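Can't paste images in this forum, so I'm doing it all in text. The chain is below; anyone willing to post the predicted structure tokens underneath?
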Amino acid sequence: SCRCGRHNNDKENAPLAQLVEHLTLNQGVQGSSPWRSTTSLPNKVRQGFFVPGDEQGAHMILSAEHIAKAYLGKVLLQDASLFVEKGDRIGILGQNGAGKSTLLKMLAGLEKPDAGKITRGAGARISYLPQNPEFPKGATVVEAVFSGVSPKEQELRAYEAMRILTCLGFADENAPADTLSGGQKKKLALAAALIRPCEALL
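Text version of the structure:
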């Protein structure tokens, strides 16, 4: 099954949760919405989505309406809808191959649905955290974080980048990124995503 819902952080995730909370509040994202659930049952795969009640509109960041997606003949999503508003925190749970990564890629604009419509709110910036991150060859930790960021933005966000890296356990920002473990690379990709201003982080 595949479910979306709010996530309650464990004690071990508290430092990272506090960091994300700080960054979120600094970007002016506050408040939350009431939730209700809807379901559909394509090919015995239950899709469970939590969507805002009747208070969508001005605060809508991202919406997916009646989307469908199949891969190699297997239906991953069928008539699925999801609405994301400012302040919403949504978790997606499901078995391997249920379509979680495909859904996120469609929301990020990296893949197109077979049917349905995905809409971004006016001016909404979406940042995507890949499942298997890749960095420029030979880049250091800090260079990987700022990959694709203009020199001016790097200067403005240098302190914030160092703080994020420290919170995520990186002691040496000049260490080669390609020597990191798989888990460290995912943390580095998270740092790179957090340093870029956005309304939604997928």
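Residues 1-9, 24-57 have pLDDT under 50 and may be disordered. The beta strands are 2-5, 35-40, 47-52, 60-71, 74-85, 91-94, 115-120, 126-127, 200-201.
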